[in-house]
């Protein structure tokens, strides 16, 4: 009986998720740019992971698939979620137009690699306590760096709907992925802590449902709002050695616009915007948008 209820929740989640995929496609078709297309690809990627979860539950629980099926679907699952740990900070980087730093890249790659390695070791050999605990500590450390970095970057996201959506997706993912790993391990144990395949499947469905619901709210708000010209928050001081075009781009970058949005507003290509930003950073001796904002505010010398 419970399995049928969980399956019903999953079907609803699939419907809502693909509604978000459709909204993402329409949102991109209304105004084609790199940012909207990348967002659509990210939502489509989550939809594929959701379908994979359904296939895995069907084969493992309902058809009692053999060890090969369990390992194959498990590897695909852990690979997908490991890549998600990389895509989250990459998405934030794209939204606010910042580059990867050594710490961000190291934390993302470490969290992704360790998460996949823990899953692979568990599937192939079982839970190896000393190694798994050490790797788990490293994973949570990297995850904490990613979480803190994204939360600190939230105020730099200009649009309120984007800010709320990124924060919600980040918190859901940071909470959900460790639970997936723990439920996998506890699924093979006995006693009060044992977690059944059905309960883990419900956990997956609820995660994707809330992710999809956040996506629906985001797209409905974005598509229903009128397009307005946003005034720059920061004004480039006259004494800064920048050209008029570089001033426009510096203000837009500080405002939180992506390279694609800046290019669209100014009628130039994203590569041209990227070259101008590089020149601005070089002239002002800054390496990030945060440092650029500090110069525009007069809080940092150049």
How would you describe what is shown here?
There is one protein chain. With 302 residues, this protein is an all-alpha fold. The protein has two domains: 2-224, Rhopdopsin 7-helix transmembrane proteins (Up-down Bundle), CATH 1.20.1070; 244-297, Arc Repressor Mutant, subunit A (Orthogonal Bundle). Helices cover 78% and strands 0% of the residues. It contains eleven helices and no strands. It has helices at 2-30, 34-62, 67-96, 102-125, 129-153, 160-186, 197-224, 244-255, 259-266, 270-284, 289-297. α1 (2-30) runs antiparallel to α2 and α3 (67-96) runs parallel beside α5.
- Can you tell me the overall shape? globular
The whole-angstrom Rg is: 22 Å
What's the CATH class label of the largest domain? Mainly Alpha
Kindly report the CATH topology of the largest domain. Rhopdopsin 7-helix transmembrane proteins
Distance between the termini: 67 Å
Determine the fraction of residues in helical runs and give it as a percent range.
Answer: over 70%
H/E element sequence: HHHHHHHHHHH
**Mean pLDDT reading:** 79
Strand content: under 5%
**Biggest beta-sheet profile:** none
Low-confidence stretches: 226-232
Q: Number of DSSP helices? A: 11
Our count of domains comes out at 2
| Named CATH architecture of the largest domain | Up-down Bundle
Number of strands: 0
- Broad structural category: mainly alpha
